[in-house]
Write a structure and sequence with these properties.
The chain is built from 14 helices and 21 strands. It has 491 residues and is of the alpha/beta class. The N and C termini lie far apart (71 Å). The structure holds nicotinamide-adenine-dinucleotide.
Length: 491
């Protein structure tokens, strides 16, 4: 294991071994080989990380102004952009995602820190008119405190940044628990905060192979807020654990997002958008456009276009710039995708393309898959596969399109493809989802809120309002007359 890289926990600004000394391995999903050894933390390490985050909050970091935090956020944004190549390679090794996507993500992550740097010195309370002229009333926006961030294996640093940048702008400290399947890049990122000049303990990371660390962190009495991205079932556990401490949560969960294509749509553009929605990142994105709901006049033609392009998608080495789809990110996820393909076949779906593993490549490769002959009750239409599996089915009129799109417990994202401007906005307003793209798919920005309705989550990340999720509002009453009042009346 000569080339294996080693990663420790990050507590109080320093890399430290797990208290137990234990480690665990991470396999590269493309090569199948162990490429990293990481510290296998335990709830005892979580205690230490929460204590370090609390001490930073009570110490130097807690005394910084928004102006100083803005400077530090700008600096960390620059450092991440400068280190994008190394961080992107770590993510590719851990999750098998394409280098060409991850280098783009890692280069843009700096802009999230820059955006929240712009907000850090503008977090303002208000002076509130009091009905009683004897009082001056104002509010302060204070950091909510120690934030627990629990993240998934797809895009670990981007999804962490959506929590970390606004939390730091607000003046919070954080303990991060990355996924056991892709933890290395989070450790590398956390070490950059020291270089940027953040005081020790502002950003801490506890890695580990067991879900018990996430559970320990989510329910930790020293934590003030929990921000989670991951599966809906796990989100429920996290919300229960946080509720024990009556802590607020932000939950970014799963999806089953619809792509609604009307008969007048530009079919070439729609086919490209559908491909990007379901086959980019091997379909392993929360916003995957996994349900293709198409007007019956163009259903067969669009399915043909998508299946033809799917057949030419280049699968292979995620580091190769020509590769368009990498492997599934880990063995449990691979088993899950194959399970859904079998269920679809058993339920009578027709495979327009794919539907199986890629025999030539072996490993964890699954062919991009287009299924027809499914309907609103099919399992692949109801449940999140989190893989390269598209389920296509027809609609007859606009009302039916909206009803089919909303016939899901999820509500993360969706798209409307049409050239009719009236219909585009009408339908976008009726789709119950946190994001709706019109004639586009898979676009995100620091300034635009992202999050879900229903089982897709609670709260929004990104945008100006995300800072609110990391602040408490304190009302301050100032008595102005200096007189002594009747203690038995309400002021
Ligand atoms: P997951 O829920 O299995 O794991 C997410 C994190 O939770 C990991 O760090 C894991 O160790 C931790 N965890 C596991 N059990 C826990 C428990 N009982 N208490 C606390 N933490 C626990 O999710 P995953 O497989 O890593 O990621 C895929 C899922 O994430 C998909 O459902 C996907 O849709 C969702 N996702 C959502 C978004 C979004 O923004 N809405 C983005 C990406 C991924």
């Amino acid at each position: 294991m000569a080339d294996v890289e080693r990663f420790k926990l990050v507590i109080g600004g320093k890399p430290v071994a797990a208290v137990s000394g234990a480690t665990f391995e991470s396999q590269n999903p493309y090569t199948g080989e162990t490429w990293a050894v990481l510290a296998d933390g335990s709830p005892t390490d979580v205690d230490a990380a929460v204590a370090a985050a609390r001490s930073a909050l009570d110490g130097e970091w807690g005394r910084t102004t928004g102006f100083v935090r803005a400077q530090l956020l700008r600096r960390i944004g620059d450092l991440i952009a400068a280190d994008a190549e190394r961080l992107a390679r770590l993510e590719v090794s851990d999750s098998g995602k394409l280098y060409r996507e991850m280098i783009g993500q890692l280069t843009s992550i700096g802009s999230w820190f820059h955006y929240y740097a712009g907000l850090a010195d503008k977090i303002e309370g208000r002076q509130i008119p009091s009905p009683n002229p004897n009082y001056l009333v104002y509010t302060r926006k204070e950091p909510i405190g120690v934030v627990a961030a629990i993240t998934p294996w797809n895009s670990p640093l981007l999804l962490l940044t959506w929590k970390l940048a606004p939390a730091l702008a607000a003046g919070c400290t954080m303990v991060v628990k990355p996924s056991e399947h892709a933890a290395a890049s989070t450790v590398a990122l956390a070490l950059l905060f020291d270089d940027a000049g953040f005081p020790p303990g502002v950003v801490n990371v506890v890695t580990g192979s067991s879900p018990e660390i996430g559970a320990a962190l989510a329910g930790h009495p020293g934590v003030d807020k929990v921000a989670f991205t991951g599966a809906t079932a796990t989100g429920r556990h996290v919300a229960h654990a946080a509720a024990e401490n009556l802590n607020p949560v932000t939950l970014e969960l799963g999806g089953k997002s619809p792509q609604i294509v009307f008969g007048d749509a530009d079919l070439a553009a729609a086919a490209s958008g559908v491909i990007s929605g379901i086959f980019a990142a091997t379909g392993q994105t929360c916003m995957a456009g996994s349900r293709l709901i198409v007007h019956d006049s163009v259903h067969d033609e669009l399915v043909r276009l998508v299946a033809e392009r799917a057949a030419t998608i280049r699968l292979g080495d995620p580091m190769d710039p020509d590769t368009e789809m990498g492997p599934v990110a880990n063995a449990p996820q691979y088993a899950k995708v194959l399970h859904y393909l079998k269920v679809a076949r058993d339920e009578g779906a027709t495979v327009a393309y794919g539907g199986a593993v890629d025999e030539d490549l072996g490993g964890l490769f699954v062919k991009p898959t287009v299924l027809t002959g499914v309907g609103p009750e099919s399992t692949v239409v109801r449940e999140e596969v989190f893989g390269p599996v598209l389920a296509a089915y027809p609609f007859h009129d606009e009302d039916e399109a909206v009803a089919l799109a909303n016939d899901t417990p999820f509500g993360l994202a969706g798209a409307v493809w049409t050239k009719d401007v009236h219909r585009a906005h009408r339908v976008a307003a009726k789709v119950r989802a946190g994001t709706v793209w019109i004639n586009a798919y898979r676009v995100a920005a620091p300034s635009v809120p992202f999050g879900g309705y229903g089982l897709s989550g609670i709260g929004r990340e990104n945008g100006v309002d995300a800072v609110e999720a990391y602040t408490e509002t304190k009302a301050i009453w100032v008595e102005l007359t200096g007189s002594t009042r009747d203690p038995f009346t309400l002021g």
